[in-house]
Structures are given as structure tokens and as C-alpha cells.
Design goal:
The protein is mostly helical and 70 residues long. It contains 4 helices and no strands. The protein is globular. The two termini are 16 Å apart.
Length: 70
Amino acid sequence: TAPSMPLSDKLIRLRNATRLSQSQIAHLVGVNATTYGDWESGHTKPKLDQYLKLAQALNVPVSDLLPEEL
């Protein structure tokens, strides 16, 4: 994914590539589906410790999810 792409767009694109549902990713990360849905819609962002779990669930390096300026 492109580093400058918003996290919400990255999550949608990566989740679609895995063919998993929002509920399935949420379960793998340890949050409820509403929380994960809020991440995909851009209403909220994950806590720092959740980025690693997201990366593992989506099978990407955590750096693919982090903003470019970090």
C-alpha cells in the first residue's frame, strides 16, 4: 500500500485482499467489530499496540500501516 494513503483506506484494501470480514479481523486483533469498523471509516484510529496485531492479521509489515511521518 502507498505510505501516504490514509489508514482507513489501507485497512479496507488489505482486508479485502485477505478476504476476511471486518468481524474476523476484529477478532484477530482483539477488538469488537464496531471498533474495527470505526478504523476503516476513519472515525477513530487504533492504539499503538494494536498496530502490530493488525499487521499480523493482515499479513503485512507494521510499517505498511504506520503514517509516513513516524
